[in-house]
Specification:
The protein is α+β, with helices and mostly antiparallel strands. About 20% of the residues lie in helices and about 40% in strands. The strands form 4 sheets. The chain has a 9-stranded antiparallel sheet. It has an 8-stranded antiparallel sheet with strand order 6-2-3-4-17-16-15-10. The radius of gyration is 25 Å and the shape is elongated. The relative contact order is 0.11. It comes from Candidatus Gottesmanbacteria bacterium RBG_16_37_8.
Amino acid sequence: MKVLILKENLDKALSIVSKGLSLKPQLPILSHLLLKAHHNQLELFSTNLELGIVYITPAKVEKEGEVAVPGKLLTEFINSLYTDKIELTATEKNLQVKTDKTQATLAIGNPADFPPFPEASKISKKLPFDKIKDAIIRTVFSASTDEGRPILTGVKTVITDNKLFLSSTDGYRLSKEEVDLAGITEQLEVILPAQSLIETVRIAEVVAAKEVDLLIIENKNQVVFGLPNTKIFTRLIDGEFPNVEKIIPTGFKTKVIVDRDILHQAVKTTSIFARGSANIIKIKIEKEGLRLSANTPQVGEEEDFVEAKTDGEEIEVAFNFRFLLDLLNNFPDKELVFESLGPLSPGVFKPKDPKTSFLHIIMPVRVQS
């Protein structure tokens, strides 16, 4: 294989496919990128067996072929070069990387050991990226990162009646989002890995995607996201997703409407004094607003007051401040509605604007009086 390629094209390609590299590979080949040169293009592959990425970039191919090369090493080396053009030449023993001033030789793996990618030629659904992007961002942060409960590392994804429904939970919080998808009549119900959705959004922004093509590969239990010059393969998560509807309160005894940014700043300030006390912040709902407090004996204590419109009973509830910050960092509206049935009931958070369908639940923390 011999290829001449612009550095900016190779940089972009490596930034995209390197996210599919395995950090702790079960097989040595999973730390490699597969490079295939043909038809004046360079095709790059990466996979960790859960997420697979394929990206195609223009190149001048003087000799077709393929090579498996350590992905992290190649990416770091290419990023360090100051040049416009790069020459890649693969032999049976190594990959030579040349510029007008620099030359390096990289050890290679066996391309035959690289896991095969299933064919994904037919596209069943086209999703508008601008509509699904924010919905994905507002749900993935609530998914679990604990591989001990794999079902909770996913996002339940349902398409029905021209709508997309997303929901995620780690057992302590829940995010739900709904998106109108005019013209899409097909039905879909799957659980997608949250990490794969995060990477899909990241790559779609890099390649300036307007639409995301979606294909289910039934016999492989996989989904393929199609983007310009890019395909992202991800496994589906098997299992029964929790019935999240049953934990959503149907009413409230206390309702608060508060400015998101002011509350965000107050939570950040109070959290400084909560880090040594299990990250707990107390929120007392009073007639004029919210009184936030945290107390770590060996550090100190802090109290902050936020004006808000309140209705109903005065209560005090405690939350993990990290959950509050995650919510506020991703909240879609200027004004936040917080509803509660009491100090031990789930806290319901939603936008004041009813046109925004986002809903978030945080389980409170039981604290001693």
